[in-house]
Each structure stands twice: as structure tokens, then as C-alpha cells.
Design brief:
The complex is a heterodimer of chains A (about 350) and B (about 525). Chain A has about 350 residues and is mostly helical. Chain A has helices spanning about 1-10, 20-35, 40-50, 55-70, 70-85, 90-100, 105-115, 120-130, 130-145, 150-175, 180-190, 195-210, 215-225, 230-240, 245-260, 265-275, 280-295, 295-310, 315-330, 335-350. Chain A is elongated. In chain B, strands 6, 7, 8, 9, 10, 11, 15 and 16 form an 8-stranded antiparallel beta sheet that branches. The longest helix of chain B is centred in the N-terminal third of the chain and has 12 residues, at about 1-15. Classes of the chains: A mainly alpha (about 350), B mainly beta (about 525).
């Protein structure tokens, strides 16, 4: 790091002129740091700053070694001094921002991190400072360069969650008896698996705003998860009536109709869902099942084969192979049935004990 | 006119359910499963029931299987304290007035053996002496009690050679080779013992799923006709498949004249053993389409019944399982294959949130269509803590059959219990089918049928060339088909008599296809009677 910094400064002609003696100590410090002798390096850099208190690179180097040691509290004054001496000295602002962030001074860290263009730490500092909107922007920018960084992903998730909560709190504070407020409460309850409370809040929301988009769908999902399929069907039916262009509502309604034994209606609804959102494996699987149960084996075969072209190796594709095997077996096409069962088993794994 | 309207309105408003749940006087059984913090898997699985007329007085008696004592620290050799009266199995003899008398001790059934934790029961007249014998399954060793014909039984397990061993669950008598002697199929759940029990769960300790323990083989005993049996599990092909088996039912699904075997497995594919008519079986569940659900998923198969629910003459299957899995109905399509029909029959929406054990396709309202009764409860006694939308205790399910589609009906109780076994029979000889349900760790429930809307016919078969009770016969009455069996359900054995609801029909035509191959026809049989039919010579 130090070597890189000096090289960079030399190449860009920004090398600060220090006294010859101070420069010698800096060079000795760099050599010690490269050998892992942090204590000796610190001594050399401190001597350089004593000999030439205006020699900014020596402060940067000193701060760098402290950073490497994790001694952020000691790094901060050295880096501050370097910036004081040279506003544009390379690397100091970024390191100072990181050091301040590490010490919990997130608000103070933000301008330095911003200046250094360090989007990841900046997003984290903004998150800690409560600037959630900008935090999300910074973290998303950082994730473009480091898409799978766990710290960035965690921070983004936290920032989004807090922003959501903040908006929800504001909603509840300003419009506590509004339909969206009850909907927000319902979502919170459902997140806590308190289905009865969630159901009650959704009902209140719908009393206040009978055409509230998504509320019937959400209630239907609650009933479906409790295996209360007749009630789920009613809710999905209501959502599909309110929003006929919503593919999820159509799919969920088709699924509920299927479970409730209304196979013809299920097939029609699932076909509609498929038109609204083509190539969705979940819709295709259920549609194939409805077609098969209605005796439309040609349709079921085509639908499940279409699914398998989209998704080859998943639980849904295993189910599609199993369904195809059943169709072929009934048709006496035993070789085809055996082939489909083989595919099914290779995806699912052998279920024998 | 106004009075008539009023009367009709009142009649509608006070419509009563089919069952009245009432424990008859004298039945004081309390099932002892001894749940422990160790969550031994056996403690949640017991509760078998049998209905049999052990003394041939024309009244059904009740046999209830107890389990035994468990302690948090169990060491081999295991002692379940079955010699203590509170852990005895119990035989209740029905009196003329409908009350029952505990005759356990007098009948010689008192001590089930300290090493045996009780599970289920099978009933069959294995020696064709005209008196039903009792086979009790256990964790430990099973017991065959020979009915001496004088109100007493003798433990003949050792002589008969049917002790099995390990963890037996449901069992059933049937005559797989049509030689006139009842053979015995014993399901076994898994390889398990208290010292190697595992408990599962995170915050809440609970019973482990079956996959946590090794599978095991089922046992087929061939009746030698001299009071002994031979273990033919390997030779017959039954032992070729290892399962985690809980339920068993028999029917000739392909009409070749030989009974086949369906075995309900927990957490893995089900078994359908096709009878090859030469003493061997071939497992064909996959090709018949009954191994898995319609989505290709294994489920927790527990209870099973194998009867014709849609009156097309071919035996269909119902298999109970856990909540979110949906009880499976497989329709027999008649070409050796079945179709999953849980959705079309309405059973999916009725059972999606429930867990079932004992089950029967039985015509409770005598309308000529077999209804469904299921003893219900989840396997985990703390399931609500793990998933608040599920319930450990549930009331039983009664679903009435309307031309092949099932609709929920009042089962006579909404009180949730841990239902397990269920046996079906006409307790009071009213022409209506009753139910006795075993309840885990509690008293059994008796569902007395009070429906009186239709006609009926109940047949008692007496075999000559075929086995004495005509087990395995196919009986066709006014277009309905029944296969004669005491097996099916879960851990339980039902009335051997064959019951038909006749709807508005006052007469019936009866066809009997005996296991011997003899075909017997009775025309213009009067409805509303108990009829004994002897096998033609």
C-alpha cells in the first residue's frame, strides 16, 4: 500500500518535498513495513514527521501502518494532518473515512468516503447515519463492482428493511386509520406468522378501501398457507375480479380452484394466467395438471414439455416428468413412461430407503 | 297447510348428524401410551381397535389394544409393565342391553407380555373353527390368541410361529393362495429401539421423521392349515422391498381372482404387491400409479382402505397422511392402473389441513355410496408450536359420498382428540354402521349411527371350500361391490360381516364370488335383514 502510494505520487509528480533526512526515514519506514515490522515503521514515520512537520506523505504512511494494525484511533489524527497539509493527497481521505467509520463516526466519515469514491463504505456509513435512501444508492453502486460481497448485500438488505419500516412507521403515525396503514400492519403480522392478526388487519383495510389492490391476494395466501382452500379461492377470486390483468392473482386462483376440485374452471383460469405471463414454470405445471385431470392429455403433454424446455432441473421439472410418465403409461407407451420416470428419479433422487 | 310448512321448517332446522358419540356403559378403557420428554417414536403411534363377535352371540364385542409404560431412561431388556392391569389390552363383551362387560381376565387376555409395547390388532378365524382369533401387534413380539370357543383364548404364538419381532404395526388376515386357510401379513414400521431413539426439532423437541430411522421388511406368514404358519416373506417376494409400513389392506384390484396387498408407507413410496397366483408377489405401485401423490411426492402413508367408492365394481384406494399432504384417493381404472383422484373427489379441500390415521370407505347413510370416516390427529403433540396453522388434536372427519364426490358432514363431535385406530361395524345390529375410534392416551370414542333413512342388507358369509369367513370374497349387491375383509384402516380390524346400503331398494340381487372360484347368485333378497350365506358345495 505504502509503496503503491509513493510510486503513484512520484509518477504524478505530486511527491512532496521533504527534508532529505525526513525522506530517508520515510524510506526506512517503508522498508520496515514491507518486512512486517510495523513498530519500526511507525518509529521511522514518526521521526520523519518530527524532522519535517509539513511533510504530508509521512503522515499518510504513518496512518496507513496504523490502519494495517487496526489502530484506527491512532490513524485518524495522522490522516487528518496529512489532509490538512495537502487537501488532495492521494489515499488519505479514503483511509480517514474508513477509520472514522470503524470508530463509529459515520457522519464524519461520509464526506471523506464520498470524496474518495468508496461506494461500499460510503453506503454503510450512510446506513449507520440513517441516510437510508442514499445508502441504498451507494450500496447498489458498490454491488455493481462486487456483486456477491456479503457485507454489501447484508447492508443493502438492512437499509431497504429500515427504509421500509421507516415508511411504514410514518404511514402509521400520519394515517393510522387508513387502508394502507392496516395493510402495512397486516404485512407485519404475517411476517411474524400471526395469521389471525394479519387476516383481521386485511379485513379492516378492505372495509376502508374495498378495492385496495393486493389485499385480497395477500389474504388468499394466508388462507392457502393454512390449507383453507375454499376461503383462499374466494379471496383470489376477488383479487382477480379487481385486477384482471394480474397474472399472479389468476395463477393463485387457478391453483385454489384445482385444489378445490373445480378442474374445468381451474384450467380456464390457469390458461388465462399463462397468457398474462407466459413461460412461468409454476403456471405451466398447474396448467398441465388441470389439462391432464380434464382428460386433455395432448394439451397436458404440450404444456409440460414447454415447461421442460424452460426449466430442466428443478422440482417443477421433476413433477412435469412424473406427470408425463403417468400420461404415457395410460396410453400404453411404456418406453416413454420409463424414460420420463428415469428423468424424474434423476432429478428427485432415489426415494428408496 | 301452514302447519305442514312449519313442520317441514322445524324438521330442517333440527336435522341431526349421522352419529351420536357415546361411550357405552362398561367400556372404561384408557389407552396408556406414556409420553416422555425423550419423544420415543412408539409413544405417538399406538391405539388399535377391533370389532369381533368372539363368542358368536350375534353381538359385536370390542377389543382395545393398550401400549405400555415408558420412562425417560429405557434399557434393554425393555419392560413396558404390561403385567400391570392399567397396561392390559381389553376385551369388552357386549351384553344384550348394549352395555359391555370387561372380560379380559376371564378370556385369558390379561397380560400382553412385559416386553411388548402394544400397537394394533388383526382378526381372523385362522383355523376355520368358527370362532374369530386375535393377533396383536407390538413393539417387541406379536401375539396370536387362539379362540377356544368357550369364551377364552390361548396364546399360541410360539406354536404358530408368528411372533414377528421388531416394531409391528397394522396386520391383516387374508387367503393369498385361496387354499381355504387364512394367511397373515404383518407390517413393520422401521428398525428402532428405545436406546437408539432420536429426538428432532430446534426450539421444540419433537418426534423425528421416519427417514431418521432405517427401513425394514414386512412379514408374510403362510397358514399351513395345521395351526402353524411358515414365514414366506422372502420366498413370496414381500421382503424384497424394505418399507416404513403402517397400514395394510387387501383386494383383488385386477380381478384375477387372487387378493393383492396395498401397504401404506410413511415418508416414502407406497407398495402395491400384485399376487402372481403362484405364491409370489410383484411390487407394482409405480406402474399402477399408486406409489406417490399426483405431484410425484412421497407422503406419510398411515391408514388405508381398499374398496370401490364409485360403484364401478373395482376396488379403489384411500390412504391417509399428514396435514398439507392431502389424503390420497386412487381410482382403479380397470387396466391394472389407478388415477389419483383426491382433487376431483373433493377430498383435497377436505383433508388439506388435516392428518389422518384410521380410515374406512363405509356407507354410513345406507344410500348405496360408500362414505369416508377418518380418525384424525397430527403425529407431533407440539405441532402448533412449530406451525400454528396445524393442530395436534382434531375431531374425526366424516365425508358423505354423493356419486363419487365427497362433502364434509357432521361427525357427531367437534371435540379435538388424538384419533388413531378406527374399526367399523354394526354394533347394535340396526343395519347401520358404527365406528369405534382408538384415541392415543385417552378413552376410545364410539360413534353410534342414528341414521334411519334408507334400506340395507348385511351378509355373513360362511365358507366351505373357501376359508370359514369367506374372507376375500367379492360380493355384488344391486350394482355395489364389497370385498370381504376385516383388514384395512390403521392398526385395526373391522366387523367381518358385509354391509350394503340399498337406498330406496326393498329387495336386492346378490352375487358372491368366493375365493374358491364358486359363483353364487341370490335373487329378490328382502332388504333390511341380516342374512347368512353358506358357500355352495
Amino acid at each position: 500500500m505504502i509503496t503503491h502510494l509513493l510510486l503513484f505520487l512520484a509518477m504524478t509528480g505530486q511527491t512532496q518535498t521533504g527534508s532529505a533526512e525526513a525522506v530517508q526515514h520515510v524510506q526506512a519506514g517503508i522498508a520496515a513495513e514491507q518486512q512486517g515490522q510495523h513498530g519500526a515503521a511507525i518509529q521511522q514515520f514518526q521521526t520523519a514527521t518530527r524532522l519535517d512537520p509539513e511533510f504530508a506523505p509521512a503522515y499518510v504512511d504513518l496512518g496507513t501502518v496504523y490502519m494495517e494494525q487496526g489502530s484506527y484511533a491512532k490513524a485518524i489524527p495522522a490522516l487528518r494532518r496529512a489532509i490538512q497539509l495537502d487537501e488532495n493527497i492521494e489515499g488519505a481521505k479514503g483511509m480517514l473515512g474508513v477509520a472514522l467509520l470503524a470508530q463509529g463516526y459515520s457522519t464524519q466519515a461520509i464526506p471523506y468516503l464520498k470524496a474518495a469514491g468508496l461506494q461500499g463504505p460510503l453506503g454503510i456509513a450512510q446506513l449507520e447515519a440513517g441516510d437510508l435512501e442514499n445508502s441504498i444508492v451507494s450500496l447498489e453502486a458498490a454491488l455493481k463492482d462486487h456483486p456477491n460481497d456479503p457485507q454489501l448485500l447484508f447492508s443493502l438488505s438492512r437499509a431497504a428493511g429500515l427504509l421500509s419500516k421507516q415508511a411504514g412507521d410514518a404511514l402509521l403515525a400520519t394515517h393510522p386509520n387508513s387502508a394502507p396503514a392496516h395493510e402495512a400492519l397486516a404485512e407485519n403480522y404475517w411476517g411474524l406468522q400471526r395469521a389471525a392478526n394479519a387476516e383481521k388487519e386485511y379485513q379492516t383495510a378492505l372495509q376502508l378501501q374495498p378495492k385496495l389492490p393486493g389485499a385480497h391476494l395477500a389474504m388468499g395466501k394466508i388462507y392457502a398457507s393454512a390449507q383453507q382452500w375454499p376461503q383462499a379461492e374466494q379471496q383470489f377470486q376477488a383479487e382477480a375480479a379487481l385486477r384482471p390483468g394480474d397474472a399472479e392473482a389468476a395463477y393463485r386462483l387457478g391453483d385454489a380452484l384445482l385444489t378445490n376440485g373445480k378442474i374445468r374452471q381451474a384450467q380456464a383460469e390457469l390458461a388465462r394466467a399463462d397468457k398474462l405471463q407466459p413461460d412461468m414454470p409454476e403456471i405451466l405445471y398447474d396448467l398441465g395438471k388441470a389439462e391432464s385431470l380434464n382428460g386433455d392429455t395432448v394439451g397436458a403433454e404440450a404444456t409440460w414439455k414447454h415447461l421442460l424446455r424452460i426449466e430442466a432441473n428443478s422440482d417443477l421439472s421433476a413433477k412435469a416428468h412424473f406427470g408425463l410418465a403417468g400420461i404415457y403409461r395410460k396410453q400404453g407407451k411404456l418406453a416413454e413412461a420409463a424414460r420420463e420416470m428415469k428423468e424424474f428419479q434423476s432429478i428427485k433422487g432415489n426415494t428408496n430407503p | 297447510m301452514f302447519r305442514l310448512w312449519l313442520a317441514a321448517a322445524v324438521a330442517t332446522s333440527i336435522a341431526v348428524g349421522i352419529f351420536r358419540v357415546k361411550t357405552p356403559a362398561g367400556i372404561d378403557f384408557l389407552h396408556q401410551n406414556s409420553p416422555t420428554p425423550k419423544k420415543y417414536l412408539i409413544e405417538t403411534m399406538g391405539g388399535g381397535v377391533a370389532l369381533l363377535d368372539y363368542n358368536n352371540d350375534g353381538l359385536l364385542d370390542v377389543f382395545l389394544v393398550n401400549s405400555g409404560q415408558l420412562t425417560p431412561s429405557m434399557h434393554a431388556p425393555y419392560n413396558f409393565q404390561r403385567s400391570l392391569p392399567k397396561y392390559w389390552n381389553r376385551l369388552y363383551r357386549q351384553n344384550r342391553d348394549g352395555s359391555f362387560t370387561d372380560v379380559t381376565k376371564a378370556a385369558g387376555l390379561a397380560n400382553a407380555g412385559d416386553g411388548n409395547y402394544g400397537m394394533g390388532v388383526a382378526i381372523g378365524d385362522y383355523d376355520n373353527d368358527g370362532f374369530p382369533d386375535i393377533y396383536v401387534t407390538n413393539y417387541g413380539k406379536d401375539t396370536l390368541y387362539h379362540n377356544n370357543g368357550d369364551g377364552t383364548f390361548t396364546d399360541v404364538t410360539a406354536k404358530a410361529g408368528v411372533a414377528a419381532g421388531g416394531w409391528s404395526a397394522s396386520a391383516g388376515f387374508f387367503d393369498y393362495d385361496n387354499d381355504g386357510h387364512l394367511d397373515l401379513l404383518v407390517t413393520r414400521y422401521m428398525q428402532w429401539d428405545p436406546a437408539h431413539n432420536k429426538a428432532c426439532g430446534g426450539s421444540w423437541v419433537t418426534y423425528c421423521p421416519p427417514g431418521a430411522f432405517p427401513a425394514t421388511t414386512n412379514i408374510l406368514y403362510h397358514n399351513n392349515g395345521d395351526g402353524t404358519f411358515a414365514d414366506v416373506s422372502k420366498a413370496s417376494g414381500i421382503a424384497a422391498k424394505k418399507g416404513r409400513s403402517l397400514g395394510v389392506a387387501f383386494a383383488d384390484y385386477d380381478g384375477d381372482g387372487y387378493p393383492d396387498i396395498f401397504i401404506a408407507n410413511d415418508g416414502m413410496e407406497e407398495f402395491l404387491f400384485h399376487n402372481n397366483r403362484n405364491g409370489t408377489f410383484t411390487e407394482r405401485a409405480e406402474e399402477a400409479g399408486v406409489a406417490l401423490s399426483d405431484d410425484g411426492n412421497p407422503y406419510a402413508g398411515m391408514g388405508v382402505d381398499f374398496r370401490d367408492y364409485d360403484n364401478d365394481g373395482k376396488p379403489d384406494l384411500i390412504v391417509t397422511n399428514l396435514a398439507k399432504q392431502i389424503y390420497a384417493i386412487y381410482h382403479n381404472d380397470g387396466n391394472g392402473s389407478f388415477s389419483y383422484r383426491s382433487l376431483q373427489t373433493g377430498l383435497a379441500k377436505l383433508s388439506a389441513a388435516s392428518s389422518g390415521w384410521g380410515v374406512g370407505f363405509v356407507d354410513f347413510n345406507n344410500d348405496g355410496w360408500k362414505d369416508i370416516f377418518v380418525a384424525q390427529s397430527h403425529v407431533m403433540d407440539n405441532v402448533e408450536k412449530i406451525n400454528p396453522s396445524m393442530h395436534y388434536k382434531e375431531p374425526p372427519m366424516l365425508a358423505l359420498n354423493s356419486k363419487g364426490v365427497f362433502q364434509r358432514a357432521d361427525a357427531g363431535t367437534s371435540v379435538p382428540v388424538a384419533g388413531r385406530g378406527a374399526a367399523f361395524g354394526d354394533l347394535r345390529n340396526t343395519g347401520r354402521m358404527d365406528v369405534v375410534m382408538g384415541v392415543l392416551g385417552a378413552r376410545p370414542e364410539v360413534f353410534m349411527n342414528q341414521d334411519s333413512s334408507n334400506h340395507w342388507l348385511t351378509l355373513t358369509l360362511v365358507g366351505a371350500k373357501s376359508n370359514r369367513d369367506g374372507i376375500g370374497s367379492r360380493v355384488v349387491v344391486n350394482g355395489q361391490t364389497q370385498n370381504v375383509t376385516t383388514a384395512g384402516s390403521y392398526l385395526s380390524a373391522s366387523d367381518k360381516r358385509v354391509h350394503f346400503g340399498l337406498g330406496a331398494d326393498r329387495t336386492a340381487s346378490v352375487e358372491i364370488f368366493w375365493p374358491s372360484g364358486i359363483h353364487q347368485v341370490l335373487k329378490n333378497v328382502r332388504a333390511d335383514q341380516f342374512l347368512t350365506v353358506k358357500e355352495a358345495q
